[in-house]
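Hello forum,

I keep getting stuck at the same step: I have a sequence, I want structure tokens, and every attempt I make locally crashes halfway through. Rather than fight my setup again tonight, could one of you with a working pipeline run this one for me? It's a single chain of 92 residues.
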Amino acid sequence: MADVVVAVDSAYAHLAVTLAKPTVIILGTTKKTAFAHAEDCAVCIEPPSDSCAGCYYNAPFHELKCGDVGCKEIARISPSQVFEEIKKCLSR
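Reply #2:
Ran it on my machine without issues. Output:
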């Protein structure tokens, strides 16, 4: 019943776009191509282009550059960026 779903690239994000819910997806180690099939309802926010964002898809495949502690580049996405995308989804 949510008007907008906000999630990282996870089962929650994939479920929301499968249900065609407006979804703001925060990416770090993955790329927005994972949601290319859902461009009508998904908005992907990626870290700045000067980062190692999307490293999960770089060689060697499925190895994170940051190690097993998670993506540090995701912290470069500000809450205000996410909020702006939420407002855009609500105004559609």
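Residues 52 and 85 are 22 Å apart (CA to CA). If your local run keeps crashing, start a new thread with the error log.
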